[in-house]
Specification:
358 residues, alpha+beta, 3 domains, six-stranded mixed beta sheet, five-stranded mixed beta sheet, elongated
Length: 358
């Protein structure tokens, strides 16, 4: 095969061992399918994908080259040197896992979208849960110091501590440390902490709404049996509005399905009856996904390569190129855009990223 000027310029950058392999393969009748940069090569490197599998060397590593079998939808194996900056890739193998299975009816949408590798709640804590939990920890810690001093005053029997023995006083003493503990549990996404915060916000919202509806409160002064004078300052009721807005907004977000799911409270949405379930997607293992489609009384499967990430997106999906897709069986050939759109509708951002979907 005669290299074009652009191909020759790109191949000249490869290490000598990879250049020798490319030259040998081209002499044996192979061809270059693609040359590019990016995964699996680093930004400073490049990769070259051959049109056909390598026949001039065994599929193993030696002193000069490192061979690794990948068997993905993008390429079947990679060959590089010790620097791992430039790669020669073999074309992907024809899908071998296109299978027919007995028809089964998934009970819930979560069973359609995920498999045994899925978990009941997201693996990453949301920003909302983190902020609310940290605010509860800080507020609870600061108020707990006041509670501690109040307990010491009660134990010492000082003047003015009689109110601390009432149910309201005891509640005010116990609430700060309980809020501190609930904040820690909320960050750890414990169900009891979710319920505590939900009840606390609901109570705050209800009390504030009651005060607003009650209207203005005049200035009131009374003297207790022990001779202590207590004055209740006047109130218009409007000071409850900010509390209502904040607590109402937090309640609405707390009850959203994506937040409830972090604590394992969200219910799965029932799927359509089995006869109308024509396609489904899911995870095969830690990295890969699959697309399945009903044909008659059986399912046919197409495996899609992917990789688990550690950032905001927990997976990246590697869609096969149009050239690779054209070699797939008839039931998927010519439907690349349609199937990719279906996969992306279930595996959507920000939890998933895509490569090769355009």
């Amino acid at each position: 095969m005669q290299l074009t000027e652009q191909q020759a310029f790109a191949v000249a950058k490869f290490p000598a061992a990879l250049q020798d392999l490319i030259a040998t393969e081209l002499s044996a009748g192979n061809a270059i399918a693609e040359i590019g940069s990016g995964f699996p090569a680093p930004p400073v490197g490049a990769w070259l994908k051959l049109a056909r599998p390598i026949t001039t060397r065994p599929g193993s590593s030696d002193a000069r080259l490192d061979f690794r079998e990948r068997n993905s939808s993008l390429y079947s194996s990679e060959i590089t040197d010790q620097t791992r900056m430039f790669f020669v890739l073999e074309p992907p193998k024809p899908p071998t896992s296109l299978s027919e299975e007995p028809t089964t009816c998934p009970a819930t949408r979560s069973e359609v979208v995920t498999t045994a590798s899925s978990q009941s709640r997201p693996t990453k804590r949301s920003l909302f849960v983190t902020i609310v939990g940290c605010l509860a920890i800080v507020a609870g810690a600061l108020a707990s110091t006041v509670s501690f001093m109040s307990v010491l005053m009660l134990l010492a029997g000082g003047d003015g501590t009689a109110a601390g023995l009432t149910p309201e006083g005891i509640l005010l003493i116990l609430l700060p440390p309980a809020t501190l503990a609930a904040g820690i549990g909320f960050v750890l996404r414990q169900r009891w902490a979710y319920l505590f915060v939900l009840i606390l916000l609901s109570t705050s919202f209800a009390i504030s709404a009651h005060r607003l509806l009650k209207g203005p409160i005049p200035r009131t002064t009374y003297i207790s049996a022990s001779g202590v004078t207590t004055t209740i300052l006047p109130s218009t009721g409007t000071e409850s509005i900010p509390v209502i807005i904040v607590s109402g907004g937090l309640l609405a977000t707390l009850l959203a399905r994506r937040i409830r799911s972090e604590f394992g409270w969200a219910r799965s949405t029932p799927a359509a009856p089995c006869p109308t379930q024509e396609w489904r997607v899911g995870h095969i293992d830690r990295d890969r996904m699959y697309y399945e489609e009903r044909h008659g009384n059986s399912w046919k499967r197409l495996d899609i390569d992917g990789e688990m990430l550690t950032g905001r997106a927990h997976h990246i999906i590697y869609f096969p190129s149009p050239q690779t897709w054209s070699a797939y069986p008839d039931w998927v050939r010519g439907r690349r855009d349609e199937i990719i759109a279906r996969v992306k509708s279930r595996f959507s951002p920000p939890d998933y990223e895509y490569h090769g979907d355009l």
